[in-house]
Structure to design on (275 residues):
């Protein structure tokens, strides 16, 4: 939580408000920022990253939109520790309750990494609440090569868990961080050693379950994603969603982009939000 607050303060966003929404799955924390008179954007962060990390990448947009960054339940956030089934639409139902609690009937929803998987579930459970779906390096669409994952993720992770050596930690996170800084090292160390991690990959998208969703869909991928290969991800999203409009490939980037790429990300999102 100290790291959570550190990241939120570093965002330096004015007029941030915290909301706690009561749902059947437990209390859900949401950070609100931006202009209350503007179009609503809902942010869904990556696994254990927390709302401040998602906000950091798009903080340049706070004057243009009313942004709600949701702390996912069952992760290292301020929300309840409840973990729901990934095999049904439980997470989508939960997100629908969160939106209702915020008095948001429908919104453009941005799903980042694992948040992209949660966005799929929201589309399946409450398609009427999603006016526009934007997937960023989304989980639950395609997976990387198993052998590559073993070599670049599993072995370095196991070495770190056995030795607690920072060099092995850097080797592990270097597979998916474009740029490693002190915060990344501290956050990953505390997450790996302080949480009961669930390493299960989310089930992959079944196109039949979203074939009725006709709203605009956009996707941003990176050119070096150890988790979810960009080109394969785009191919499947384009085939699954009738409303697929456009994509963007962030070049010279791993799964987690570097801060110097945030402006490029924000500009792309802004363009899609206005279309």
């Amino acid at each position: 939580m100290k790291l959570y607050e550190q990241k939120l303060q570093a965002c330096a966003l004015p007029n941030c408000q915290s909301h706690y929404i009561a749902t059947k799955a437990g209390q859900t924390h949401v950070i609100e920022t931006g202009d209350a008179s503007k179009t609503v954007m809902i942010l869904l962060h990556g696994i254990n990253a927390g709302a401040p990390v998602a906000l950091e990448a798009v903080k340049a947009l706070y004057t243009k939109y009313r942004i709600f960054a949701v702390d996912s339940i069952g992760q290292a956030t301020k929300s309840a520790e409840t973990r729901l089934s990934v095999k049904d639409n439980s997470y989508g139902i939960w997100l629908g309750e969160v939106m209702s609690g915020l008095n948001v009937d429908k919104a453009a929803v941005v799903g980042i990494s694992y948040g992209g998987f949660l966005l799929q579930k929201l589309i399946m459970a409450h398609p009427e609440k999603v006016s526009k779906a934007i997937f960023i390096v989304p989980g639950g669409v395609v997976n990387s090569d198993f052998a590559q994952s073993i070599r670049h993720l599993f072995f370095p992770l196991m070495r770190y868990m056995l030795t607690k050596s920072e060099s092995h930690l850097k080797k592990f996170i270097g597979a998916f961080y474009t740029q490693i800084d002190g915060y990344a090292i501290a956050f990953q160390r505390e997450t790996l050693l302080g949480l009961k991690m669930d390493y299960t990959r989310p089930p992959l998208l079944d196109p039949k379950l979203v074939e009725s969703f006709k709203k605009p869909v956009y996707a941003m991928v990176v050119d070096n994603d150890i988790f979810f290969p960009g080109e394969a991800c785009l191919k499947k999203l384009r085939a699954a969603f009738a409303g697929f409009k456009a994509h963007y490939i962030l070049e010279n980037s791993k799964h987690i982009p570097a801060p110097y790429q945030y402006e490029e990300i924000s500009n792309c999102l802004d363009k899609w939000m206005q279309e």
